[in-house]
Amino acid sequence: MKTSYQERNNWIELLVAAWAVGYYLITLSSVEGGFYAELSYFLPFIVKVVVVSIVMGIVLAILNHVLSEDAKDAKDEMDKAIDLQGFRNAYWVMSISLMGVIFLALFNERKAELSGVQIETTNLLVHALFIVASLSGLVQSVTQIVYYRRGLV
User: Fold this and answer.
1) Residue 129: which residues within 8 A CB-CB, separation 6 or more?
2) pTM metric for this prediction
């Protein structure tokens, strides 16, 4: 099946974002303590995942551009409309998820007051914000790919 240059770029974004989330969650589950692990380990790890994701995305996008015959084509109205739909869905996922993170942090603090059991809020927020940002990127890419596949706007 023939795909457009823009759609292939969306597949690249999806693969890079899925790799980042998968690698992060697998590492998080394999580290002793998981969510409770020290931030001194996870902050450099998050920076490494973000930098590697950016570099992978750039390299794959350059390869896509070099190997594509239609890379010189400007975005048409359909491409712009599909981008808009993807950004709109990603915006809503991020907005709702960030509200969930805020409530999670507040609930965690309240639970600590009542029971004395608490996940350190900073750890919780770092993990939750990384997952929310990644989830938003995944939603954007999936939305755009679905619209390219269906040809709908």
Assistant:
1) 98, 101
2) 0.81
Write down how long the chain is.
153
What are the C-alpha distances in Å from 12 to residues 64, 87, 89, 103, 139?
9, 16, 19, 33, 14
Which residues, 6+ apart, have CB-to-CB distance to 55 below 8 Å? Answer: none
Specify whether the CB–CB gap between 108 and 119 falls below 8 A.
yes
Within the chain, which residues score under 50 in pLDDT? none
Whole-angstrom distance, CA of residue 136 vs CA of residue 114: 33
Distance CA 130, CA 122 (A): 12
What is the gyration radius of the CA atoms in the chain, in angstroms?
A: 19
d(CA 140, CA 144): 6
Mean pLDDT of the chain: 85
* Tokens 């993990």 sit on residue: 127
